[in-house]
Write a structure and sequence with these properties.
mainly alpha, two-stranded antiparallel sheet
């Protein structure tokens, strides 16, 4: 008799499901709009950097968002390797500054470059550590500040959210 042990990383599922990066990204944007996700991420960061103050939101909501943003980061990680498989519609000549967000002009025209830059600077484990630390310090009113640099991964994550939104808005399809 085969013994199935639960996979605690996936939330208790006993089998592994292979996901594509685009599916994980679109699933994230089906749950959260870009402004809502960026505001919640900014709020988590804001309260993580405050001493003796915890975030006034429901902790379950924050932990659920952390779970979904982790899957988004994994989807972004997978998208950086498959740049030649995807075809993007051409951007307009004069991009909207609202759609461009935090991206530079080069990153706006080539959104996969944003994912590549983020994962050359930080690994998946470092993004997980960043999310763990930011969520922990935002939920707990403590006397110390986070030990690691939380600002740089936050900027990369905000840029990845903008780049993923550009991918969804411009239309991405297989070659």
């Amino acid at each position: 008799m085969k013994k199935n042990t639960p996979d605690f990383v996936s939330g208790g599922h006993t089998r592994r499901i292979k996901h594509s990066g685009l599916r994980l990204i679109t699933a994230f944007f089906n749950l959260y709009e870009l402004p809502e996700a960026k505001n919640l991420l900014f709020e988590i960061m804001q309260y993580a950097m405050k001493r003796r103050v915890s975030i006034p939101r429901d902790p379950g909501e924050i932990l659920e968002f952390c779970h979904y943003i982790r899957s988004f980061v994994r989807g972004s990680y997978l998208m950086q390797f498959k740049t030649k498989q995807w075809l993007l519609d051409d951007p307009s000549d004069h991009p909207s500054e609202l759609l461009q967000g935090n991206l530079s002009d080069e990153e706006y025209h080539h959104p996969f470059l944003t994912f590549k830059n983020a994962f050359t600077a930080y690994t998946l484990d470092e993004f997980d550590d960043f999310l763990n630390e930011a969520v922990y310090f935002s939920l707990v009113a403590c006397h110390t500040l986070p030990g690691n640099n939380l600002i740089s991964p936050f900027i990369h994550l905000a840029k990845m959210l903008d780049a993923a939104q550009v991918l969804v808005e411009r239309g991405i399809r297989r070659r």
